[in-house]
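Q: Two folds, back to back.
A: First:
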Amino acid sequence: MPRTNDRWIWSRGKMLDGHRFDDDSNKSYTMPADIFHTNFDNGDTGLIAQVVEKFLAHHYQYEAPRIAELQRYYLGDNDIHYWRNDKKYLNRADNRVASGFPKFITNMRVGYMMGKPIKMQWSDDSETKPAIVDAIEEFNRANDETYHEKVMKTNLSVTGRAYELMYTEQPTKNEDGSLNTAKVKMKAVDPLTAFVVYDTSIEAKPLFGVRYYLVDYDDAGTQGYYVDVYTATTIYHYYAGENPTNADMKLVGTDNSGFGVEPLTEYANNEDRTGDWESKLDEIDAYDKALSEMANSEEDFANAKFVINGDIDADMEAIMGPDGKPLLDDDGNPMMVPKIDAKDPYLFIKPSIIPDANGNTVVPASAEYLTKQMNEAGWKLYIERLAADIHKDTNTPDTSDQNFGGNNSGVAMAYKLFGQDQEMSMQKSLFSRGVMRRLRMLNYYWYQNGEAGISADDANNFKINYTPNLPNNDSEIVQELQTLSNTGLFSERTLREFGASVTGVSADAEEQRIDDEQANEQQGQFDPTALQGVNSADLEEANRKALQNLQQQGQQPPMSPTDFLMNAQRSDNNAK
């Protein structure tokens, strides 16, 4: 059976060989809700195991091989590495060159959509920021949410689906012995080892989730597959043995869920749950094969056979046998061969004269390598055509294209990214569904645990926004910002949010900075109230004494603004 290190061999060697995946390799699992409740509601772990075993065996046998193959391609282990041919038996070059299209396309998609963190904006009009906003921000910081989203998007791009598990840590104790609310954590789960089962209603509500994993520790008592079953109230831990397709699961333990719904969320890349480049695997294989054959031709040319017509013009020497004596031909004469030193840079040949009944036949002397003619221009055109089709059909811009550069206008760049933007609009909607489910689970958990200031439906007031990660032309943005400001139609906060892409400072932080600067300026201003109630005669006497002190020290008293201007004008006239 497949183990940890050889799980990738389930789908190898099918390069350009017809149908690639089984018809059941991308099936969405469903079951009637009443059957689910019959088997799950009473907590009978035996009945639960029987239901899970059926789905587990199907996933391991049909769905996991497809996911494993797509993951192989992303890691550069393309099917060209398992291409079946007889080149080695014919003593010919057999290079296997795998292209990096899958990783390039995925990284472009992930960077474009998730290169800049997604924003979970509170859409309520309330002036004060509610407690759940601070709670979500702290949760995101503690779980490195920006990196988590990139991992989820990578899984989506590669396999067409991604899984996110919400779970809680052990609660901590206060000094008085009371328990704090356990912190919530989230983790991206490998799509190769997880699935969710839905009911058969039009809404397709999730019933339970499954995660299974292989423990291959060097101990006979721990080897095998472990299965975690997640429901809205309980998490069941099972041991399934060494073969998930014929499992007889044994209960290991249970835990409370605490989120009100099963905590394993399935994200979909599109309605078909396919990867971004899955439909172009044939073209990727053809591209790999073309590159490999080109490398083979170059190597075969370097190792081509050297053909000589005619006789070698060199001294002859006898062929010696193992006993050190010359070998003899049928007539008893020593067998002679040209005496050639392999280190010589050249070889002399002459026409060969073959006697026959009609006289002598002269074979002209020639020497050449035995090679086949390469159509390099046609080969180059074929490879470029394959690459162009892969870029076009996956809506991935070709950054090596000479027309794809930083000197293009924003409108030109928008047209180049038009196809990718249209496809990504659906992907953003599907991704937002998963994020909103995460927020609602957090909201439910905190509300049920009595966190201060959190209402039951706060999560519904969040809005998920995405910012494409593209090179910015800061000068154009600043000009547009100034134009918008001059219209007087936009608020200061809107303008700050628009300018955040240039400054890197959020609208909230910028507003706080402005408030701080204004407060500091007010502290440094002269306060006229300090002179209120001062006698004018006393103020005049103080000024007289100050001037007298300056004169005694040999310093000129400060000029009034009028005297300063008049003095400046006299200086200008003298200069003229």
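A: Second:
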Amino acid sequence: MERLDTGELAARTAHVVEHLAAAAGKRALAETESRLREAARRLADGRIVVVVCGEFNRGKSSLVNALVERKGLLPVDVLQTTSVVTTVGWGPQAQATARLRDAGGETEARAIPLDEIAHYVTESSNPGNRHRAELIEVLLPHPKLADGVTLVDTPGVGGVFPEHTAMTTGFLASADAVVFVADMTSPLTASELRFLGHAVTATDSGPDEDGLLVVLTRADQAALADRREMLANTRAKLAELTGRPTGDTSVLPVSTRLRLRYLDSGSEAPDEDSGYPLFEAVLWRGLRRRRARLLLARPLEEAGAAVEALLRPLAAEQEALARETDETLSRMRAEAEAGQQRITELRSTGAQWRTALRSQLRDLRRDLVMALHDELDTVWQRVCTEYLYDEALQDDMDELAAQVSAAYAAVAGATARRAESELNALVSGFAQRHGIGLSPTANSRIDAVGPLRLEPDLGAEEQPGKAMPIGRDGAFGASMGAAIGGTVFGPLGAAIGAAAGLLAGLLRGVKAARHQELQTRRRNLRDQLGMARGRQQRVIVHGLGNLLDTAADRAEQELDSLLRQQTETVGDTLERLKATAEATREQARARHETLAREHTELLTTGQEVATLAALVTELVTEADTDLPPAPRLEEDGADAEAAAEGAAGHEAPGAEAGTTGPEPGTGLDTGPGSRPETEPEAKPEA
């Protein structure tokens, strides 16, 4: 089957919507025209956001550069980047804009050359973000971005700047897809797994197979046996983390170094070595589906409703013109007037539907707030029973603060998505019961409190020096050892026992001192985090309330808009019936011919809407039968067979592993113990 083009579907959808808007305007149906114009605007402005994230020095910026085929676009740096996010989207010409905040809090948009991006986003050029950069927006005339795809390059998580992790986690709530970048040469670390857990939490309302991809970079820098082991290890860890079957999340090995080398060569032969063809096929396939679901389906629903609104008065007038008696016309006018009266009652501010809707929204608010408190309690329990007992986190205040901030940000994102999902379900059911169509709520976010800063000794009680308890335990051990050794073996035994007892006592003293130190620090950190917990809870609960209030207002506005649309349709029907009653036989005959042409044209448009809706459904459910082969990473036949089965399957798990046998001399055929050429994949970057 030929691959469906979302760009073509979007263009045809936009044409249909604009055509119907013009028809509604010509007939003075202002509300129908307004709704169609708004649908066209949303379609034109719609974006699919792909957040590229991962720890420092994993190759995120290099990967974005390879995706847009611009080797030096985003800088790579040996130092951590600042807390600056860079977005890359479509534009008719290449350009960059830095959004800077001045001392007074105002934001300035400053056009900058592409080669000055590093001046704002790297720690070496912008230490401590002294330029106050909030966002760098890059536009490129790249065809892969033309459908509204925006790539978001985020700061590295898990580093010395806790605001990086909190900021990146906050972006997950608005992501349509997440590409998590890890390293083929090292297993997923504890901090990476913690962040992935936050990512799953933040994006886990109605998850689908296209939502999360894990990319292992530097695939050509690991030995053959290590690559197989690393892929299996990563898939197993993801399965344990998510509770989903192994292979449910795509894990794709790539080499950005080989990809950029291939692009520089200008070769027309297939790129068989870098792994990027399969990675991009899986990524763009998922984004096509997301675009169809999120951006095309709703305008087509609006177009179908508009066709119905435009056809109904025409059909009524045609029936009236074809009447055999005036009683038929009287009956039709009475039915139209009754419908008009019903709509008028529904539009009344004290209408029952408003009371019912607000009551259901209050119940939903109560349930969501209770669930939110449960989630926040779960985070706090994890902090107290897991994070504070992790010695690595206790010794790294910044990492501990980053992980706690990320956990709260993930809860905020998950709550926003759950609220959106349940609001849509509530509104849809309400619409069915009352015979009024409603649009889904717009995407919303709940912001958590900014990054935390923890002080290891804040409020700690004065403790005796370590030397005192260690020396005390050492002396006690020496005396006991001497006593026991002397009793059993005499003077020589006393000397040996004293030495052994001293060593045992010193070790016990060191362990006791460390335990005391950790206990004191744990209490200190728990007190600080307890204060932060209260702030986070207040901010997130307040954010949920604002989200629900806004959604309730939008729902009522949407209802009012639809009722105005129905009022216009009924009014148009009544005007046509009135004109029909006053028309002569000749006028009726001519009018009937005009209506027949309009009716046929609208039916044709309706058929186009139905065709486009069917194509969108087909696009969302298309089978993955044309994925490119996996990179040549594996050798044995069993793995190759698994890759073939995976490439034809729903999630392509074999393709994730990269399982067809390498040929001698290919870029990824490094073999056990060997290494690629000395050219690095890219400078380390954040």
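Q: And?
A: The chain has 17 helices and nine strands.
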